[in-house]
Amino acid sequence: MKYEKMNNLFLRQSYLDSWEDYERSLKKKSFIKWDYIILTASNEAQATAYRNQIENRLEKGLLPEETTYAVLPDSEGKRVGSGGATFQVMRYIAEQEPERENPFKNRRILVIHSGGDSKRVPQYSAIGKLFSPVPRELPDGRSSTLFDEFIVGMSGVPSRIQEGMLVLSGDVLLLFNPLQIDAQFDGAAAISIKEPVATGKNHGVFLNDGHDYVKCFLHKQTEERLREMGAVNKAGNVDLDTGAVLFGSALLQALFRLISTGGKVDEKKFRQFCNEEARISFYGDFLYPLANDSTLEDFYKEAAEGQLNEALHECRTQIWNAIHHFSMKLLCLSPAEFIHFGTTRELRSLVTKDVQDYEFLDWKMQVNSAVQKEGFAAHNAYVGSRAKIGKEAYLENCYILGNSEVGDGTVLSHVRIMDRKIPEQIVMHGTELTGRKKVIRIYGVPDNPKGKYPGEVSFLGTTLNQFMAQNKVAKEELWKGEETYLWFADLYPVCDDWEDALDMAEIIYKMAHGTATKEEISRWRETERMSLYSSFNAADIEASCDQERFLENRILARCFIRKLEQGMYYADALKIFGKRGISKEIFKLLMEDAAEADFSLKIRIYHAVSCYMKKTRTIYDDLHYDALENDCFGTIQEVIYEEAEKKLPDSAGYRIVKDQVDIALPVRVNWGGGWTDTPPHCNEKGGVVLNAAMKLRGIYPVQITVKRLDELHVEFESKDIGVYTTVDSAAEIQDCHNPYDSFALHKAALIACGIIPVREEADLQEILKRMGGGIYLSTQVYGVPKGSGLGTSSILSGACVKGIFEFLGQERTDAEIYDVVLGMEQIMSTGGGWQDQVGGLTEGIKLISTKPGISQNLVVEKIEMPEEGKEELKERFALIYTGQRRLARNLLRDVVGGYIGSRPESLKALKEMKAIAVLMRFALEQGDIDEFAELLNQHWELSCMLDAGTTNTCIDQILLVCEDLIDGKFISGAGGGGFIQVILKKDVTKEQLHERLHGVFQDSGVDVWDCELLV
């Protein structure tokens, strides 16, 4: 166990080193890279898919751009063998290096043979096993594939070799440290690893000649034979053939001469070695002659990739003569790991129960998947909350929706199922064909499509012979001249849509189990059908890749949204997209999701994406971040206003009953819980605020007047800024959303009180005539600086509403007025909360609280203090003007955005602010002003945590100057300017505070203001 742990630690570190090499290969021009990376493919369609995958990675900067990439399909779609494909690679390189006598000299070439039909894992036949998923997420956030693992794992190899070609098998993942490679050899070098003999008997094994050269090859030999040949060491291990081989330039040149004349490719020679009849094998025909004990006579007898025939015999003769004098060094790497992606059963085992063996490589059962359950593997899969997935099932590129059930051990690939029950231990793979037809290929997990004897080959729990017998299917219905085994059996109906294809797959399963009806069998028999082979060749690979990309984007978007729903900080949730970020396709999906989401989730999607756009300076379809930010806060405004609009009074019976009404209200000072009253926090969590009403310089500074006019129009005046206007149309009043409009508040008051309709057209003169006259509304705030933080804007709104209702003879409770004012806030787009209007409309010290809900029902509790406590509070409370102003609307989005985005500091501050407000109430009720001062200090720290702009150098300097005179401090309103509230130390007077401030700040405006708490 200790050895295994050390082995895993070594391999993990090796992988991390390889990742660093990979990143260097992307960033450093001087880093030694592959000159060529070449993939082989089975046909042009597969090659196109490979090229698209490579191009996609190049566009995203995920592959070294200095390397030349090529994908070479078997010519004319005919299988030429892995050796023939290697000759095609040589030809390609020679064409790229026409002036070089030896085109392979001083060139580092990586070749990945990936052109197989993938008969044993048919879901990868079309797209190629090379780009099949590996159950891990790369450090940059991408889902990994075998190709990506090859690129990363082999990034350090070029620096270990001066020249040569490294050939890899596309279905074997080899983990090792490139520093182990000793590239000093002449000819070839086989990369081997030590594996138990039980593993070796199922693969190729090298026999060491005692000098670290290959003596002979032992392919799929019994344990007894391997021991007899001396291939098993004392530890019970063999030198396993990993499929990774290094060819030196001299050996490559020797092979190239077989297909060239005078350094140029000879077409006739090339076709002799690269054709379907000879079908030369890289691993058999190129490597066998390099073993020390090989003989030409035995070479002729070696198993072929295709058929033993005269064409292959002649090719082997020439190959032997060309390269037999070269030898093959044995590079045995240890520690190292050999992972074979072979059969469907092996694949399923790797991604389910065996995944824990590779936890040191960060393998996991569920990668890039939106699932909420465990016990099964998923890659790029979406599983609905009601779906049931069996143990050790494997889902890739799938939607599993509704009440679907998937049986134990079943493998689903490229399917979308809704409310279906899928049996256990089967494979269902969806393939879209050219022409948009659909096929679902179904077979058993243990089934071997390569098995050539239908009577002996299992199929969905039975055999092909039994399948044919019990359904009276003639051999000619399944095979038309091809070899009679599963790979070529025309079992799978061609359908117009996926639902029909799923129905047909279910019929095939029933036929295998003898439960299909005559009608179902007839339907199957009468439908055009294809085999695993023909459907793979007819597959629309581009459509399949598009589907994978869409599903990947869909899942990433869903996972991101789920993290937002779970309350994750938006910046952490964004990490799910890795370095790739939010693509245009993902952005569209997120906007679709936002459109369908409920209030809380909608605003969080908009906020998170707008923050991403702002940070990355990303623009989608000419849409800038601020448009999405406006959608976020516009949604809040709309939802809150719609709720407030329900409570707007019916104006049908309105009549003017007074010629003039004057209202004067105090300002307010906020003490505890500020910001918790602001939507959407108060709607989702409820709010708790403690504040107090206050006179300023001996008066109620917020004043309004409403008068009846003989003329049927509306007059607005704002006396404190000296502006006046006359309005003759309802539409002009309805245009009240501009925060820079001097009369936005006046207009909003008429709308909120129900005099002017919100949206529909209306005749202002008719409305006024019915009411009995025109309306004059003036407002003024005496002696309070703009941006004071004393809540004047909302209190002014409250004064307008209160005055208008009195003007119309409408009796309204304080609670009803609060609701109307909150509606006004949303009409004017200020987005504020409810504490300010309550603070000014209701005198005294109040604890105001609400429960969560779009409709906010305010509970206002007046705080009763002992007389001694009241007097002490009045004496020790002082208000200092900072000489600065700050617009609450500008910082509102920052603070509220912190809450919407689940910024940890914001959530913590808001939660603790509510608790402190309640503790302040208790302290005041007890008359404990010292405790109240300490709580103010704590709240100050929380406010700074919520918004760093709460304070600034000016405020800090003011507080520093009077630090020894005060026990408590707090900012008024949102902070960053306006007034500072302080609790003086006992026996310190306001005059002393004034002298200290004036001595430092002179006549700059920083001073103590005359105020009176209305306690």
Automatic annotation (TrEMBL):
**Which SUPFAM superfamilies does the UniProt entry name for this protein?**
GHMP Kinase, C-terminal domain, Ribosomal protein S5 domain 2-like, Trimeric LpxA-like enzymes
In its UniProt entry, the species of origin is given as: [Ruminococcus] torques
| Keyword hit for Nucleotide-binding | yes
Q: InterPro entries, from UniProt?
A: GDP_fucose_pyrophosphorylase, GHMP_Kinase-Related, GHMP_kinase_C_dom, GHMP_kinase_C_sf, GHMP_kinase_N_dom, Ribosomal_Su5_D2-typ_SF, Trimer_LpxA-like_sf
EC number annotated for this UniProt entry: 2.7.1.168
Alphabetized UniProt keyword annotations: ATP-binding, Kinase, Nucleotide-binding, Transferase
UniProt-listed Pfam families: Fucose_pyrophosphorylase, GHMP_kinases_C, GHMP_kinases_N
Q: State one molecular function term (GO).
A: fucokinase activity
- The segment(s) forming the GHMP kinase N-terminal domain are 773-838
| Residue ranges of domain GHMP kinase C-terminal in the record | 923-998
What Gene3D superfamilies does this protein's entry cite? 3.30.230.120
Q: Which GO terms describe its biological process?
A: GDP-L-fucose salvage
Q: Which family does it belong to?
A: Belongs to the GHMP kinase family.
Task: Give every GDP-fucose pyrophosphorylase domain span.
Answer: 104-496
Q: What is this protein called?
A: D-glycero-alpha-D-manno-heptose 7-phosphate kinase
